Every structure is written in structure tokens, then in C-alpha cells.
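U., I forgot to send this yesterday:
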Amino acid sequence: MIDIEKKTLIRWSKMGPRAMFGQFMLELAETNIDLIVMSADLGRSSGLDRFKKQYPEKYISVGISEQNLIGMAAGLAKEGHKVFVTSFAPFLSMRASEQIRMNLGYMALDVNIVALGSGLSMGFLGNSHYGLEDLAIMRTIPNLNVSTPTDCLELKKTLMDYAFSDRGGSYIRLTGVPGSPITYESDYEYNFGKISVINKGEDILLIGCGSIVGECKIAIEILSKIKISAKLININTIKPLHDDILNEISKFKKVIIVEEHIIIGGLFSTICEKIGLSDLNPKLLSISLPCKFGPTGKYDYLLKHYGLTGEHIAKKAMEFIRKKN
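Result:
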């Protein structure tokens, strides 16, 4: 557990996940002598400016060459270093997917990939920089863990867990922007692979991952005002996903899965695969991104465009509840 004040969580939220990743790496470097942080020419974008100045011997930039980044990281991991690498989500999950598959999957080397700007958070940089399909690609690789922290507190706990464990390779998906809603307003017990109940309710179940869980919190507040009791579950670990999620789903007739990822291959697909191998038969609704390229613009605009704001999620939940079939 971390002794932390709410004002600190607010400050972290204002700084955003990319900046806080760099801050958390500074803290980890103080206690983990084997730590190495690597970047594909994105030191400033990943909040690592202070880190590379304070720990130049622990920081390596390989330039814009993500395939080389993974290969070098794998070699350092094989020599006993705890390695974290960072670049934008599509460049890691697609450009370097073969290297991730062979070095982290097949060879099971302990490299932690921190994917910046997943989902729509890259805004005006557009579809070339959006992480729309990364979960679908990364979770198919054997021996690779996949985590989706919802806010900066959970990001810190996720990084600490990987830094001081031997779980093997990981893909850590950073979504959201500075000022995104906070999910955890106080400390909580983090358990790798386990689900986390954010809000208790009886009428409908919402399941989310990443920063969009903060928007789901707004949605359940709206629903509560019209006497709809919604339970909210945060999925930090997409892979492996604990079977406890089936126990939660079994208590509800209708379940909504919310994610900042295309409908194919992400959280919705993961939940459907679990349900398909069980005896459960709930009514499901996916609130996600369509499998197509879309507009560019400010992050807030994009969330509204795709119906991923708290207000839109609440509206869709009301329509889903009132639907007879």
C-alpha cells in the first residue's frame, strides 16, 4: 500500500500518464540497481528528461528504430537487467511485433513495454499515431502479459509490480491525457491479474479498462440520479484475465463493456471468449471504437465523437436497460 493524499492524485492526473511514467521511473531507479529504461527517440515525450539527466547510465535511446529497441532490450534482459522500453503504441505493437513475439514471447525474456498514447490520446497527430488495434495484436502473443492501468495511481502500482517481480514480458497500455478523470481517489490493494470493483450496484454491470473507466464513473453517477444502480469493474490485466470476472457477470442479465479500442480483439473480445467457454448467456453491449479510421482532433472531441464520454455511456446504458430483448 502507498501512503498518498488526494491532492497528490489530482496533481498526477493534471500531469498525465506519460509525464508520470517518467517520474515513477525516477523513483524505481533509486531502489532497483538493475533498472534500464530505453526509448525510441521519445525521451521528452515519455517524461524521461529528468531520468536521463539523473541516471545517464540507466537510459538508452536507440533512435527511431523500434525493432532494434526490442532486440537490444531483450539482450539486456537476458543479462539480468530489469528493462522498460517506451514508444508510441502503434509503432511498438505493429512495427516491432515480430521482435516482441520472438524475444518476449518465444524466449520469454523479461522486457516491459510501455506503450504511449494508446487509444485516441494522440489527438491531432492522427490515425498514424492512434493505438486502435494494439490489444488485439499483443494479447495473442504467448507468454506476454498485457496491462491497462486506469489512472496514474494504478500506473505506479503496475510499474512497481513488474519492476520487482519475474512475470516475464509485458505490454503496458497508457491511455488518457493530462486531466483525465481519476478512478482511484485513495489507495487500494493492487492484485496482478485480479479484477477491481470500483462501484457496487445491482441493475447493470459495466466493465472497463484503461482511462475510460474514469468516464464510466461519471456515467454511473448520472445513472444513480435516475435510480439505476450500476456496478463498475476495472480490468487492469487483460492477459491473464482472472476467472473471477465470470462470477461477477453471472449476477447480471445485462453487461456493458467499455473500451478505447476497436471492437475486435480488445476487452470485449476477451470477455466474449471467457463467456463462450462458460454456461453464461448474458445480454452484452460493446461501447468501443469502430473498426475503421476516423477523424483527428482534440481528445475530448474524439471521445464525444465515438460516444465514450460519461454522458454518452450513461445514455447508452439507459437505452440498453430499457430494451426488452
